[in-house]
Amino acid sequence: MAVLELSLLMHVKLFSKDLALINDNTVLRFLGKNGSDVNNEEDSAAENQENGRGADKERKRAKPRTRRGHARGRARHGGEEDGDDEDGTRRAGQRRQRNRRGRGRAGGNEGSDSEGDPTKARKNQANQKSKEDDEQEEDEKGGKSGKGKNEKKQDKKADKKGKKEKANKKKKDKKKSGSGSDSDSEEEPITEEELAKLKEEVEEKKKLIATLRNKPWKMKKKLSVLKYEAQLFVEKFEGALGKGKGKKFYAYKVMMTKKWMKFQRDFENFKTACIPWEMKIKEIESHFGSSVASYFIFLRWMYGINMILFGLTFGLVMVPEALMGKPYGSLPRKTVPRAEEATAMNFATLWDFSGFAQYSVLFYGYYNNQRTIGWLKFRMPLSYFLVGVGTIGYSFMIVIRTMARNANEEGGGDDTSFNFSWKMFTSWDYLIGNPETADNKFASITTSFKEAIVEEQESRKEENIHLTRFLRVLANFLALCTLAGSGYLIFFVVRRSQKFALEGLENYGWWERNEVNMVMSLLGMFCPTLFDVISSLENYHPRIALRWQLGRIFALFLGNLYTFIIALMDEINLKAKRIKNWYLYNGTIPENSTAPPIQVDPADVPRGPCWETMVGQEFVRLTVSDTMTTYITILIGDFLRAVFVRFFNYCWCWDLEYGFPSYSEFDISGNVLGLIFNQGMIWMGSFYAPCLPAINVFRLHTSMYLQCWAVMCCNVPQERVFKASRSNNFYMAMLLFILFLSTLPAVYTIVSIPPSFDCGPFSGKTRMFEVISETLEHDFPSWFGKVFGYASNPGLILPFILLMVLSIYYLNATSKSYKEANLELKKKLQSCILKPKRKMKIRDDHLWKSCM
Amino acid sequence: MGNKQTIFTDEQLDAYQDCTFFTRKEILRLHGRYHEMAPNVVPMDYTKDPDVKLPMQLIINMPELKENPFKERIVESFSEDGEGSLSFNDFVDMFSVLSEMAPRELKAIYAFKIYDFNTDNFICKADLEKTLNKLTREELTAEEITLVCEKVIEEADMDGDGKLGFADFENMISKAPDFLRAYSSSVLP
């Protein structure tokens, strides 16, 4: 091994050296010794031919040149035999160089062939020797393996004829340069062509380094290839290449690429280290399979999105207002009213997000309608509006982009022609590291095989189909009943709460005040369980069952949410009416109050109801109560149950662990939907409560830890372990749907309801979006406003929309046809592979029979 | 963690990073795992590339492999001598191929090796039967096994020679939707 290493090392070193050899004194010996090998090289001409593309090319180039050399040599001197000899030498030398490169390349591609014939490698080095003593030794070793005597003889000869050869060398350089008149060529160490070749080769080695990890070799081989072939080669030759004109620049470039590579690698390391909770998720994956882990990956993804939303609202809305806006107490909207002052700091009030919390940057009402604030001339209302719109726009963009990427990754996985093969070779999940999960996996594989066998052996029995059909219809009917019931319940409760509100909440207790939230949370808790029971009637594959379950709970939550929103809208309208009345009572109060003749304390100024803040508060309360319910459910439903089962199992009449209560399984569908709906509420409410993303980030952060812990310590793996469908596009589609649904009410309120006149950044305007036209008027040149006016003309917008619709239609149609073409090609390809071989076989059979 | 440098030199770590899909930290963690299995045999200092091999019995008891029905085959196909003892290089190699980042082609090559029980470069009926028995813990009847094996060969055998060559195998497995996921394992700290 050591010898091999040495030889490889020499090989590289020598090669780099002989490039610069021509203007070296030692060129004499170089020529002399190479001459000795001419015969040998000629012998192996056939072998040379096989040795790579470079060899052939080089020979073509070398031949005419040598012929010319012969002619010239003869014409000049009779005693120019040496010249001929040297021509041969050079030719052979060059060819050998090509050879070696070809071989090097082959080595790079197929593994190091040189390992196979170390003697040959050494021989090549011997040919390419130079002045160093140790290298001479190496030469002699090389000589032993072949024509040592010859070489030595040639050596002596070379020394004698030193001067003559020096002269010849010059001649040769001229020949080499083609034109023959160029005396500069002596200084030029390598020709352009060689340089290009070398560069190409260095590139190839680099490519080899980059793709080395994809090679199915043993690590030892990889390491040695990397170290002795590729890396040294690249290092040496990057240096050698620099001997040309742009040496410094090249060296600099090489250095920078190296640094850049190092940086990239470090950055990659850093990036993987930065992905949060990676180890936690991996651990869960190994215990519970990929379906449970997919929930946590989804949670992490949501966390990332919420971080960005939080950054937007926090950095562009809350912080500027807190730092540069007017301080608390300077305006009525920024002051707690006199009547509430006494209880404003109570914990119960704060927990309810009223009192001081209500009159702070957390909610819409606190913001002033001053156009610019602070010394930065920060356009607060504009910023508020743009952040609100940007939040929604960004969410749409990121969800759709992720969906598109997932769809791309999916590729052509719809082929069912390998049903059994795939079951056989891909059903084991290599991530499983837990005996229980493994047991379940074995069981589920066996069942799936049995199912497939039954399906294969006979088409399903008739009565069976009828029964399942009946059961499935029944299940859907029951689910619909549950949905309708829960919808009615919410409607009823909201109505009742309105009645309570009209009569004044003070007369009622805690339950009446929180009835709506509680009922919604309770429904969210119990209905999914009900659906679970119902779905056991249907007898679907768990993956399909999960989708049905998700769809049903989705419908439930959606119905609840929309009932809730409609009820809220009712309340807003009620308040709007009261605002009108208030206007009527107070006549022209808004104008009067802006120029008060008497100084009134801001806390005493009468004010209108601020419905925006109210909506914001409602969403924040809903989010908080939802979070609390989730956590309490986890603690009671999972943790306490697990503790009970674990410790009471010692003194109970039946086996608790395998009997009735048992441990709970992780409920993927419920958790995913909880997450999605929570996000929907954030999207809906964040315009009116800028603090909502912050609360959500906190919630996701804590629930990541809590749920990870709960899963690991109190849940058991599912009975039928199944793989998650590869992409989370089903989750994503629901998220997109929710996003769409939650932007509807937000956009509706922004566009068509007039903002409250005495609170929030848009007070005094008839519609919120007027802030845009105001900015256009004041901060942009007048022509811009005109252009904008023309552009927003319906005459332009309608054709534009039409164009977009048409282009969508066109793209859709083309993608469909591509898909079809793809399928067709796939079929053709398969039959192409299949046909000839099968045919051949049949023909062979026929032949065989006819022969018989 | 001040002793990081004493386990590997920087060049070694760089070389490993070039040859595998792992980061520095993961390679060190892998060494930790390798060391942990036989603290007396495996040195902490790997700068001189000691020639240490661990027998298959130790390696298949790792939690990552313990439950895997093909653990012996996995270890065998990654060991240099084919007997199942792994040097650290082989060990790293194994987890590199099993890592999530490894490409389909690479995984397919090793998956083929794993299922080729008698190492004749074909997956024949006997191999399929063995695979199936390991997957289902021998809970299928003989007829069922024959049926499944026949179906598999019928589906995947393109050249009609009654057994699966690597081309057949790759063609079949590369289309499987769960393939990448199915052949990914992770090393826990």
UniProtKB/TrEMBL annotation, chain A:
Biased composition (Acidic residues): 183-193
Top-level taxon of the source organism: Eukaryota
GO cellular component: plasma membrane
Residue ranges occupied by any TMC domain in the UniProt entry: 610-725
Membrane spanning residue stretches: 301-323, 344-367, 382-400, 470-494, 550-569, 730-751, 787-811
Protein's cellular compartments: Membrane
Membrane topology according to the record: Multi-pass membrane protein
Predominant cellular place of this UniProt entry's protein: membrane
Extent of Basic and acidic residues compositional bias: 148-158
Coiled coil: none
Biased segments, Basic residues type: 60-76, 92-104, 159-177
Region feature Disordered, mapped onto this chain: 35-193
Keywords tagged on the record: Membrane, Transmembrane, Transmembrane helix
Pfam families, sorted: TMC (PF07810)
Family, similarity comment: Belongs to the TMC family.
PANTHER family for this protein: TRANSMEMBRANE CHANNEL-LIKE PROTEIN 1, TRANSMEMBRANE CHANNEL-RELATED
Name of the protein in its database record: Transmembrane channel-like protein
Organism: Gallus gallus (Chicken)
Automatic annotation (TrEMBL), chain B:
Domain EF-hand as annotated: residue spans: 66-101, 103-138, 144-179
Signal peptide range in chain numbering: none
Keywords annotated in UniProt: Calcium, Cell membrane, Cell projection, Cytoplasm, Magnesium, Membrane, Metal-binding, Repeat
Keyword Magnesium: yes
InterPro entries reported for this sequence: CIBP (IPR051433), EF-hand-dom_pair (IPR011992), EF_Hand_1_Ca_BS (IPR018247), EF_hand_dom (IPR002048)
Superkingdom of origin organism: Eukaryota
A Pfam family of this chain: EF-hand_7
One GO cellular component term noted in the UniProt record for this chain: sarcolemma
Protein name in UniProt: Calcium and integrin-binding family member 2
Native source species: Gallus gallus (Chicken)
Gene for this chain: CIB2
